[in-house]
Sequence to fold (385 residues):
Amino acid sequence: MVAGVADVVVVGGGVMGTSIAFHLAEAGVRDMVLLEMNELGSGSTCKAAGGVRANFSDEVNIALGARSLEAFARFGERPGQEIDLHQVGYLFLLDSAEQVEHFRESTALQNRLQQSSGIPTRMVSVDEAIALAPVVAAEGLVGACFSPSAGHCTPESVVLGYASAARRLGARLVTGCEVLGIEAAGNQVTTVRTNRGEIRTGTVICAAGAWSAQIGEMVGVELPVVPLRRQIVVTEAVQGLPAELPMTIDFGTTFYFHREGPGLLVGLSDPAEEPGFHLNRTDTWIPRLTEAMARRAPSLLDVGLTGGWAGLYEVTPDHNALIGEADNISRFLYATGFSGHGFLQGPAVGEVIRDLYLGREPFVDITPLSADRFRSTVRPERNIV
Fold:
């Protein structure tokens, strides 16, 4: 049983929930419970490709990505966990003048906002892109964009690091605990009902990823988050891969890959995928993947596969996150809807939610990411996969 009283209840045990729990506990919030309906990281986080970057078309996303990159680089010291970080860079392959112009704009924006942070992102020639990622075929490419400070790391280790540190600091993290309802008196949260008992609390933080819409409905807060399956495969060993092979994305097809041991982790955003909680692996997307490979990295067609998995994106209408505090019910905070960017933004968003809870001003203004923005406008992110 988890019945009792807590100052704060965090719903969701992925990178977002554990980061929030760590940052709150580090700030002195000890009377806190994190609830995860399965195992920590078992939702979207540990099915992620693990990419970490700050090259976006939106200023808020750039700030969240840059802050998180700094945190990932120091993760071994704070909170104290090896995460197998490879800062090998992010390489976007571009096949049209329109894409090149778009990335010129986003690169200029990122570098202007991050003048003293890391090695600048830059536009590169096709020849330089091939030198960075020799498995890529040059035909059809007109340019590329490279972010040297970006890269990839291990999602499971990030969750473990945040969770272990939060526990050391006094937070309770409870797995196998499903939220069944949230009760309120007037506009104030009073109780979280779970399959293992009731917790009296005045604050709920929703970090439930693809399941966030249901949590919001419990208190009358609309969180427009839709689950969308994304699938990944891992290849057998690929001969001749550079040790510093960047996370590489063919922007036109969304085909991407990075090193995974002696082979590659490979994925693609399937436009035919229907929304829903589909967690089983299928082969329906493989023809699109092989078509993209044939165009951009044909040598990989001869490499066998050793496994793979399916996970969920938590998608919003404009592919931007929902971060903030509900205006119709006091002390219901949310951090969700990251549309594929949640893992890489987890450290920074943990800071933001901590500050919102404590009444501090966050390091970046996240009011544009309020869930109520859809009443009047959208804030589209264009650098999506």
Summary: The mean pLDDT is 95. The two ends are 41 Å apart (CA to CA). Residues 97-113 form the longest helix (17 residues). The helical segments are 15-26, 59-73, 97-113, 126-132, 155-168, 212-217, 286-296, 342-358.
